[in-house]
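1st attempt posting a full record on here, be nice pls
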Amino acid sequence: MEQLAGDVFRELAEHAEKAGTVIMLEPAEAVFTSLFNTNEEVMAMVEKISSPNFSVMLDTHQLWAVEPSIEHGIKATKR
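the predicted structure (as C-alpha coordinates):
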Protein backbone atom coordinates (compact mmCIF):
# COMPACT_ATOMS: atom_id res chain seq x y z
CA MET A 1 0.00 0.00 0.00
CA GLU A 2 2.84 2.39 0.80
CA GLN A 3 4.37 1.83 -2.65
CA LEU A 4 1.02 2.52 -4.32
CA ALA A 5 0.56 5.65 -2.21
CA GLY A 6 4.04 6.81 -3.23
CA ASP A 7 3.25 6.31 -6.90
CA VAL A 8 -0.01 8.24 -6.59
CA PHE A 9 1.55 11.07 -4.56
CA ARG A 10 4.44 11.38 -7.02
CA GLU A 11 1.97 11.77 -9.88
CA LEU A 12 -0.10 14.27 -7.91
CA ALA A 13 3.03 16.29 -7.08
CA GLU A 14 3.82 16.52 -10.81
CA HIS A 15 0.31 17.86 -11.48
CA ALA A 16 0.63 20.27 -8.55
CA GLU A 17 3.87 21.62 -9.99
CA LYS A 18 2.19 22.29 -13.34
CA ALA A 19 -0.75 23.96 -11.58
CA GLY A 20 1.50 26.05 -9.33
CA THR A 21 0.09 24.61 -6.12
CA VAL A 22 1.14 22.40 -3.22
CA ILE A 23 -0.39 19.13 -2.05
CA MET A 24 -0.21 18.67 1.71
CA LEU A 25 -0.43 15.30 3.45
CA GLU A 26 -1.54 15.13 7.04
CA PRO A 27 -1.48 12.13 9.33
CA ALA A 28 -4.77 10.62 10.44
CA GLU A 29 -5.64 8.64 13.52
CA ALA A 30 -5.65 4.86 13.29
CA VAL A 31 -9.46 4.70 13.46
CA PHE A 32 -9.45 6.27 9.97
CA THR A 33 -6.45 4.64 8.27
CA SER A 34 -3.49 2.38 8.90
CA LEU A 35 -1.23 4.53 6.71
CA PHE A 36 0.36 7.78 7.83
CA ASN A 37 -0.71 7.93 11.46
CA THR A 38 2.22 10.01 12.70
CA ASN A 39 4.19 13.00 11.49
CA GLU A 40 7.27 10.78 11.20
CA GLU A 41 5.42 8.52 8.74
CA VAL A 42 4.18 11.50 6.76
CA MET A 43 7.66 13.05 6.63
CA ALA A 44 9.11 9.78 5.36
CA MET A 45 6.67 9.96 2.43
CA VAL A 46 7.33 13.68 1.87
CA GLU A 47 11.05 12.94 1.72
CA LYS A 48 10.46 9.99 -0.60
CA ILE A 49 8.47 12.16 -3.02
CA SER A 50 11.08 14.92 -2.71
CA SER A 51 9.09 17.66 -4.39
CA PRO A 52 8.57 21.27 -3.32
CA ASN A 53 4.95 20.73 -4.36
CA PHE A 54 4.34 17.95 -1.83
CA SER A 55 4.53 18.77 1.86
CA VAL A 56 3.24 17.99 5.34
CA MET A 57 0.23 19.61 6.97
CA LEU A 58 0.22 19.83 10.75
CA ASP A 59 -3.06 18.99 12.42
CA THR A 60 -3.31 20.28 15.98
CA HIS A 61 -5.80 17.61 17.05
CA GLN A 62 -3.57 14.87 15.69
CA LEU A 63 -0.56 16.42 17.43
CA TRP A 64 -2.44 16.24 20.71
CA ALA A 65 -4.13 12.85 20.23
CA VAL A 66 -1.49 10.68 18.55
CA GLU A 67 2.01 12.04 18.95
CA PRO A 68 3.99 11.32 22.14
CA SER A 69 3.92 15.10 22.68
CA ILE A 70 3.00 18.15 20.64
CA GLU A 71 6.65 19.16 20.63
CA HIS A 72 7.70 15.72 19.35
CA GLY A 73 5.16 15.91 16.51
CA ILE A 74 6.35 19.33 15.41
CA LYS A 75 10.01 18.38 15.61
CA ALA A 76 9.31 15.29 13.47
CA THR A 77 8.46 17.62 10.57
CA LYS A 78 11.70 19.62 10.78
CA ARG A 79 13.99 17.67 8.50
